[in-house]
C-alpha cells in the first residue's frame, strides 16, 4: 500500500478524492482532482489488495439497503451499510447521512466511521458495529432474550440523551424524523444508540423548522399517532385510556411480572404521552425530558384531560407549574425556565 506523509498542495486549491475497491480484481484505486473538475479516467494510484475477508457475504437486508458485518482479529468490528443504486432515495439518503452523521459525537449515537461511493452507483457507509442488533427484535420477537426493566429504562434514557444532543447541544439542530425501535441499535453493553439519519434535517439554532412531518420507512404518517394494524387503535390512545381509568400500570409488559420500579414506569408512560401531545407547544423539549429523567425537576401532576386541551386552554393548565412546556418548534424556547443555556 502507498502512504502519503505531509502531503500538501502549494497552490492551496481544494481537492476531491475518490477511493474505489474492485472486489472482482481485488484492486484499490485512488483518483484525485480539483473541486469542480470531473473525475479523471485514470486513477492517481492503484494497488492490489484482497479485502474479501473484511467484507463478508452475510448481511441484513432492509427496504433499500443492506448491512454486512466486517471483522478480523487485527481490526475493529464495523458494520457496512450498502445503499443500493436501485433505490430512488439512495443518493439522497447517502448525502443526508454523511452530512448528519459525519461530525456527530455522542455515546448514544452510532458513529459513522467512513464512507465511499463505488461504481454503478453503489454507496457504502461504515459504522461502528452494534453486536446486539436493533431494539425492535427484543421488544417484538426475533430474539429470545427478555429485556428487564432496568435495561429498558436505561435505553430510553440514553436515546433521550442522544436526542437532546441533536436538538440542543450540537452546533446545529438535527431533527432525526424517523425515531423508532428498529433505528435504535444496542452495543455490547446494551446501551441504546440512535442510528439511520437518512431522513434527518439540519437547521440553525433559533430557526423555526417544521418538524411535524415524521416519516416511517418511505411513507409519511400522522405526526401524532401510530396506528396498530391489528386493532385499529393507536398505542398512545391505548395507554391514555388506561391512564384515564387509573390503571396505567396494566399497560406494562406482562413478561416483566412485578420486576420494575413503579415510579420509573409512571414517569416513562407520562413522558411518552406528553411527547406525543396533539398540541406541539404542550410537549416538553428534550432538555426538559432529560431533567425529568435525571430527577433534577419533578414532573408536574397532570390529569389525563391535559392530553385533550387545545392551545387556548394551555395557559390555565400551566398556571402554578414551575415547568412551562415548550417544544423545539417554539420561538420562545429560550425564555423557558428549563431551556436556558445550551
Automatic annotation (TrEMBL):
<keyword id="KW-0067">ATP-binding</keyword>
<keyword id="KW-0547">Nucleotide-binding</keyword>
<dbReference type="InterPro" id="IPR011009">
    <property type="entry name" value="Kinase-like_dom_sf"/>
</dbReference>
<dbReference type="InterPro" id="IPR008271">
    <property type="entry name" value="Ser/Thr_kinase_AS"/>
</dbReference>
<dbReference type="GO" id="GO:0006952">
    <property type="term" value="P:defense response"/>
</dbReference>
<feature type="domain" description="Protein kinase">
    <location>
        <begin position="45"/>
        <end position="326"/>
    </location>
</feature>
<keyword id="KW-0808">Transferase</keyword>
<dbReference type="GO" id="GO:0051707">
    <property type="term" value="P:response to other organism"/>
</dbReference>
<dbReference type="InterPro" id="IPR000719">
    <property type="entry name" value="Prot_kinase_dom"/>
</dbReference>
<dbReference type="GO" id="GO:0005524">
    <property type="term" value="F:ATP binding"/>
</dbReference>
<keyword id="KW-0418">Kinase</keyword>
<dbReference type="InterPro" id="IPR013320">
    <property type="entry name" value="ConA-like_dom_sf"/>
</dbReference>
<dbReference type="Pfam" id="PF07714">
    <property type="entry name" value="PK_Tyr_Ser-Thr"/>
</dbReference>
<dbReference type="InterPro" id="IPR001245">
    <property type="entry name" value="Ser-Thr/Tyr_kinase_cat_dom"/>
</dbReference>
<dbReference type="GO" id="GO:0030246">
    <property type="term" value="F:carbohydrate binding"/>
</dbReference>
<dbReference type="InterPro" id="IPR050528">
    <property type="entry name" value="L-type_Lectin-RKs"/>
</dbReference>
<keyword id="KW-0675">Receptor</keyword>
<dbReference type="GO" id="GO:0016020">
    <property type="term" value="C:membrane"/>
</dbReference>
<dbReference type="GO" id="GO:0004672">
    <property type="term" value="F:protein kinase activity"/>
</dbReference>
<protein>
    <submittedName>
        <fullName>L-type lectin-domain containing receptor kinase IV.1</fullName>
    </submittedName>
</protein>
